[in-house]
Amino acid sequence: MWTALRAPIHNHQLFTAFVENSIYVDGPEIEEIRQAARRHDILVSVGFSERNPASLGSIWNSNVLVGADGIILNHHRKIVPTFYEKLVWTPGDGHGLRVIPTPLGRLGALICGENTNPLARYTLMAEAEQVHISTYPPLWPTRDPGSAGKNYDLENAIRIRAGAHSFEAKVFNVVVSSVFGEQSAKTLSTLGEEAARVAEDSARGVSLVLDPFGDVISDVMREEGLLYCAFDPDDVLEPKQFHDLSGSYNRFDIFDLRVNRRRVEAISFFSQRIGQGPRQRSLNCPYSRRPRHHPALRLGRTRLAELAAQVGPLSPRRRGPPMSWDRRPVRADSPLRGGRCRGRWRRCLRGGRRCRRCSVGCGAGVGGLRELRS
Fold this sequence. Notes:
Blueprint: H1 2-5, H2 12-20, H3 28-40, E1 44-51, E2 59-66, E3 72-77, E4 100-102, E5 105-111, H4 118-125, E6 131-136, H5 154-169, E7 172-177, H6 182-189, H7 193-201, E8 208-210, H8 301-311
Parallel strand pairs: 5-6, 6-7
Antiparallel strand pairs: 1-2, 2-3, 4-5, 7-8
């Protein structure tokens, strides 16, 4: 929030302190929360500022869902920081746009402004979401409250977005806003009296629970505390008769949405041998994981030619499936008869072509060695 109250050229110390107080998802802080969830047999959804292990100065606005067994069920990074948040947080990815089956129902979560994004919300709708968690900051000023323009009313915006998603997705929406505490106010007061006044006069967020019709079914909390609400996740079935946007009330022959869930990494590594392209691994080739054990790698070019001459020419291939061929037996005096490759090279052949996965001959480059079966 300090990025909205003072120019970036004056906030270097605040940014440094904020990054240093951010945590890693596999750090001791999250581990302590996981142990507490396991100890008390509860489900925990918690937002935090996450440090990037590939960079000392990059952080994400993140959320994790921890199961009652202490396992992280989902790890989401906010896909786009909102407005002045771009000066602090890095854009996330679609890896965490998931709905997780839990004892409380099928649960999904979005962070702050993501609840305005119809594509992100529909992604969770289309995974049969029953319970939605919306998290928000304690306040979010967009204008000086004393100016003539209209400032951002956070509570009103939360009610509009939460009600919209509850009604459109037919889900229970658990809205959680953080609290602007004394320590936060004290920190912002160091920015000057003007910054302290803007923070004091800006609208606060609220915490509440809405049903699939968009109605509030819990207390409305504006202070720190525990909010309780009982509901049955299966009550989403009745309103889905009217508007089931991920089912009967849509036209998937007209609309098509694709979501990239690949976790974005700063760098990827691969091994490469001299004179060859990148070494690719595949489960389809028995020697792709340990190519050094392939007999062809232990034979020189001259020796391969000698073995080809011993085996002799192959008969023409019959027409058939892509992996079928004439089973010409290896001669009895062939030194490869009974070798470790017998009966296994067939998986590496594609109509006599060279295997592109294991990057070794597999006999495809020498006509007489394409058949090493007895």
